[in-house]
Amino acid sequence: MDKSWIQCNRLSTEYEEGVQKFINFAIKNAAGSSVIGCPCIDCGNLSFETPTTVKDHLYMHGFDVKYDNWFWHGEEIRKSSSPQRENHFQQQNIEFDNGNELEMVNDAYKGCYGDPKAFKELLEQAEKPLYLGCTKFTKLSFLVKLFNVKGRFGWSDSSVSALLSVLADVFPKNNEIPTSMYEAKKTMSVLGLEYVKIHDCPNDCILYRKKYESLLECPTCGLCRWKKKDGTVDQYRKGVPTKTLWYFPPIPRFKRMFQSSETARDLTWHANERMVDGKLRHPADSPSWKLVD
Fold first, then answer.
1. What is the three-class DSSP state of 34?
2. Contact 41/124 with Cβ under 8 angstroms?
3. Of 242, 212, 214, 216, which Cα lies nearest the Cα of 227?
4. Contact 107, 259 (CB under 8 A)
5. Which of 13, 21, 203, 287 is the most exposed place for a label (fewest CB within 10 A)?
6. How many CA atoms lie within 13 A of 261 on its CB side?
């Protein structure tokens, strides 16, 4: 029997075993999803298919040899971006100073684990230039800075939407600037920055939640839950509350902060690494800190 045929057959068997090992690993870490990222040369983890289709692709097109760390399928994600996109932007000679944004995306990976498509879209936003030729901002880094300024100066959603509309016209064509706050929030929500709106009594007597959720007026002061129509005395715009509380759930934010090993170490430094010798070296050494803690 030809030795070269035996060797080729052996390599083919090893490749099939390797593909099956990868498929088993991907299914195990798919968190119940029926699709997984396809790491074949043609798809490059940008297409999500059934395990059977992924196996066929790997047999027909081959496994992308640069994908040696399976972070799309459960392994710890690296600090750098995926090799496929990194090469793509190197071809355009673009270097972004967006390390912090990429770390945010990396830390958000586990939060998107049950929805790999959401993570794929978020990673694309983190590496997509704001406009053709832009080397300073990506879409995600621009939105992070915009939300920071919005919060510092108390801009309303409508004012930011108006600003985005103007900027979209000012910047070069085919830019990535969202045209409204709604679109911007859809991108940022994947990072765990979601919030809940709860209707509130105008006098802050109650929140319309739990046992008060279905009420139309406050049981304490008697004021209506809804805003009055313009120019009317007793006509109300049902569905438009007089006052709204914006509730930012703390648990998702704690999870988000502690997903990063570096951030988690900083958050627990005062308890795990602080020198305790009776001297006041840090606010955590004060008696007041114990009351806060």
1. coil
2. no
3. 242
4. yes
5. 287
6. 4
